[in-house]
DNA sequence: GACATTTGACCCGC
DNA sequence: GCGGGTCAAATGTC
């Protein structure tokens, strides 16, 4: 370390502290209600995680640099060969020498692509939804296409694999995995990988407008919800456009996906496995907190379209189940919604105007 | 017909 | 060899 924290580290730390603060607030609120032990446990764990991560950041001995993985993640979409760079060459045998050579090259490329794919930023969002939503899990603002389902060892429920609908047309590499929690059937664990580089898939022009089915699905969900979504997405639009996430700019997909966090726990899995914020990782493991306020006045988020419970869930008492499900998913858009959405007051968190970091440096 | 989902098979890393 | 992730043909839906 250079002896001083750079602003990215400060952001990381502050974010973790904010997260911890929020967890603590929520825990306090939960203590006054009849919350389940699991809920309390989750909050406590969240607090511990937050502070452990902050400490972990403080222990970094080197300045943060943009991780190679991020470069890969950010540029893959823009630089990959349009003709399905990730297409698998299945190792199929070809007869003539030329084709064999080609096949070998393709196989190599495929392997490289596989590695790259594995290095894509990955983060997990736990979303609590109504049981009626079934195994499909909540909808989010993107257009996903299911491409697989697998029974996972020791897991009660199968894991579903989705990729961006515009993968082929726009080479959007975003994927997600949805798995129902073993412990809590109303909880979905959604693991996102890669960022949307598609135009349609982003928050600015959500899936509502593209695939027919989703259009219909959304239409059936009622006007009220549509209004909520519209308001939410309007809040996202300006910022995502400014970010130009579709290009090869450095992305910070995980850290600032606050919309996700409004619906549940969100945590990033880093590219390494320790689960603690790592040096050199600019974006991974920001463990995007759910910053949803325990009270409306405790902080203000432009992205909070609906009342929240203390645990960052939309109050099912105030909303119909279907609304809940959709709103959860609406606020669950994982990508293209980085820091500009960070529209909360640091003052409320105890970070005064003198808190020594400069958010402006994050975005070019 | 276009698009989405299902599902068995395949590939890769561990 | 095993398990997770992905492919792609078959099938379903609109």
Strand content: 5-15%
Molecular shape: globular
How many domains, as an integer?
Answer: 1
**Beta-strand segment tally:** 6
Order of secondary-structure elements? HHHHEEEHEEHHHEH
Largest sheet: 6 strands, antiparallel
Helix content: 25-40%
pLDDT below 50 for ≥5 consecutive residues: which ranges? 59-107, 132-136, 201-264, 269-364
Keywords: DNA-binding, Nucleus, Transcription, Transcription regulation
Biased composition (Polar residues): 328-338
Region (Disordered): 313-339
Protein name: WRKY domain-containing protein
What does this structure look like?
The protein is α+β, with helices and mostly antiparallel strands and 364 residues long. It has one domain. Helices cover 36% and strands 11% of the residues. It contains nine helices and six strands, in the order ααααβββαββαααβα. A six-stranded antiparallel β-sheet has the order 2-3-4-5-1-6, with helices on one face. A hairpin with an 8-residue loop joins strand 2 and strand 3. Helix 1 runs antiparallel to helix 2 and helix 7 packs parallel to helix 9. The longest helix is centred in the N-terminal third of the chain and has 25 residues. It is globular. The C terminus is likely disordered. It binds a DNA duplex (14 and 14 nucleotides) through helix 4, strand 2, strand 3 and helix 6.
């Amino acid at each position: 370390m250079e002896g001083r924290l750079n602003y990215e580290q400060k952001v990381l730390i502050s974010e973790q502290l904010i997260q911890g603060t929020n967890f603590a607030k929520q825990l306090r609120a939960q203590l006054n209600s009849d919350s389940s032990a699991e809920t309390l446990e989750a909050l406590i764990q969240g607090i511990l995680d937050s502070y452990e991560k902050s400490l972990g950041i403080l222990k970094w001995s080197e300045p943060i640099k943009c991780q190679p993985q991020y470069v890969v993640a950010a540029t893959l979409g823009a630089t990959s060969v349009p003709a399905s760079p990730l297409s698998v060459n299945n190792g199929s045998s070809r007869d003539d020498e030329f084709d064999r050579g080609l096949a070998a090259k393709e196989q190599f490329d495929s392997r490289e692509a596989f590695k790259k794919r594995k290095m894509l930023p990955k983060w997990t969002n736990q979303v609590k939804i109504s049981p009626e939503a079934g195994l499909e899990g909540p909808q989010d603002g993107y257009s996903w296409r299911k491409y697989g389902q697998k029974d996972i060892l020791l897991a009660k429920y199968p894991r579903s694999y989705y990729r961006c609908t515009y993968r082929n047309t726009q080479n959007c590499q975003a994927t997600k995995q949805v798995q129902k929690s073993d412990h809590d059937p109303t909880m979905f664990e959604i693991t996102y990988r890669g960022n949307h580089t598609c135009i349609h898939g982003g928050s600015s022009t959500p899936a509502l407008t593209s695939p027919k089915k989703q259009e219909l699905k959304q239409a059936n969900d009622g006007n009220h919800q549509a209004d909520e979504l519209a308001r939410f997405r309007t809040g996202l639009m300006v910022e995502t456009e400014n970010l130009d996430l579709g290009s090869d700019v450095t992305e910070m997909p995980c850290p600032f996906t606050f919309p996700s966090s409004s619906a549940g726990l969100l945590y990033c899995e880093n590219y390494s496995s320790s689960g603690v914020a790592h040096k050199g990782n600019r974006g991974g493991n920001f463990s995007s907190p759910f910053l949803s306020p325990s009270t409306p006045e405790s902080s203000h988020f432009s992205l909070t379209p609906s009342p929240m419970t203390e645990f960052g869930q939309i109050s099912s008492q105030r909303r119909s189940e279907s609304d809940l499900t959709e709103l959860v998913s609406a606020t669950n858009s994982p990508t293209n919604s980085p820091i500009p959405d960070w529209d909360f007051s640091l003052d409320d968190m105890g970070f005064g105007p003198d808190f020594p970091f400069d958010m402006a440096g994050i975005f070019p």
